[in-house]
Amino acid sequence: MKNRKIPLNLNCGLDLVGEVLYGKWKMRLLWFIKQGHKRPSELQRKIPDASRRVLNVQLKELEDHELISKVVYAVVPPKVEYNLTEFGESLIPVIGAIGQWGDSNEERLRSLILAKPVLNVEGLDEG
Amino acid sequence: MKNRKIPLNLNCGLDLVGEVLYGKWKMRLLWFIKQGHKRPSELQRKIPDASRRVLNVQLKELEDHELISKVVYAVVPPKVEYNLTEFGESLIPVIGAIGQWGDSNEERLRSLILAKPVLNVEGLDEG
DNA sequence: GGCATAGGGGATAAAATTATCCCTATGCAA
DNA sequence: TTGCATAGGGATAATTTTATCCCCTATGCC
């Protein structure tokens, strides 16, 4: 999301959404914040597969895109809270729809995704 | 989508959807196919920013994930048609919701995305 | 001083995704 | 014979996205 070599396509709604929602952890972040997990450390615990650093970066982008707002409390140790903006809230039903489709088709998706075309499997000599 | 070094996360619906829908042109491909643009050359004309090769690759993945089906006619010059499967059809409302959110917020999104933090602008010497 | 907490971020490496280049094949038209 | 339209794909380069490493802030407490 820095200086791009390849120009952005911002032709249609899908392009625009992609720019703010593409990002491995972004939808999950929005979702968990919506569920009340507002602090960075909580989010990290909710998404242990992502490093703290990565979550920070993606949170920053969500903030830049005005989907979430950040409150920094002047206390020690530091305390930070993220909240959905109204704009971000309006995206929740969309994310909900995506997640629900995934949940509804969980088994099928899982097997499709894990099904790799059989090739060069050791032990399957053809000679 | 080949041999991955980093293991897949398939924890929740969002992860699963991501695996089949992440891909710069995939949602657009599904959408255009739904609208009746079924042949590769038509799709290419609809999405001129993507190369023919790239569309082929993504179409193949959509096919592998059973969201579309492919019909090859034994004619010359070659003729191919893609159609949404029932599974792919079920995804259309979701894509519709995403695109609609983007369309509804087009102006705001466009300015947010294009708004880059001012830094090192030439002509703004600070000394 | 050393440690714990809670949060941040620069630099760089690694991985994944996209794009580019160039080749295949067929029949018809100029 | 070259050119065009149709469709497909291997190999590799370029770009973008994620991940890793390591260090930083500030305060209170033992």
Automatic annotation (TrEMBL), chains A, B:
Domain of life: Bacteria
Keywords, sorted A to Z: DNA-binding, Transcription, Transcription regulation
All residue ranges annotated as the HTH hxlR-type domain in the record: 12-110
Keyword Transcription: yes
Gene Ontology molecular-function annotations: DNA binding
Name of the protein: Helix-turn-helix transcriptional regulator
